[in-house]
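so my prof wants the structure for this chain in the tokens format not the other one, which i didnt know existed until like an hour ago. anyway here's the sequence
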Amino acid sequence: MRAVAGRLASKALVTGRALRWLLRPPSSALHLEWTALVDAQEDERHPASAELFELAIQAASRAKDVDLSTLARGRDDAGRLLNLWPGEHYRFLAAMVAIVQPLLVVEVGTSTGLGALAMASALGPAGRLVTFDIVPWRTLPDNLLCDADFVTIEQRLGDLSDDEVFASNADVLARADLVFVDGPKDGRFEPLLHRRLKETLQPGALVVYDDIRLLTMVELWRSIRDPKFDATSLGHWTGTGLVRFESPSR
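here's what i got, hopefully its the right format
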């Protein structure tokens, strides 16, 4: 009996430690997110994915020399985020825009404006960027945008998961060469948006999904059958996924 009790106590101790670790893993990191390790044998074997691998390597090589310090406008916190690479994705995004030279970039999720500023900084003379959010940029106290930015940047307000909002902006999305999706990652918005983008974007459009390693994004990422490449180690620590949209699914 004493041996059985000892084994039960040992199991309880191990279980307790495991639960504590799951609730709060022992780490000094400022941010912790849940993820899943899933094999890529079936969902990343598209023969055209090699082109995205080459694009990611070119962008990473170029990102080494990208300096976004001037976009921080004297704010140390913004400067650290903009130039932390790899780990953050801003230099990688700017490098990718510089290589692809899209005429129209669409961003889903303006937030504080760091992504829009980084990508807009690398646009060619004829390039422009349209960024979507559900709140005006001025209402966020820590936003980095200013009126002068809206020569090449335009913000449109609306929830693209809403049928009417998406329909009213479908013309812009249909012309986009590059789409950067940084939405709420709530398990609903991104899958719905992905299906609508698949029906709307021109063949060959490049879509960059943020946070593909979050648990709420893993299923979506695995479901994509277009050419794709997981560029997480070269971009954002929570996941950066590149997708080349093929013909629309109508």
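also thought this was worth mentioning. The two ends are 68 Å apart (CA to CA).
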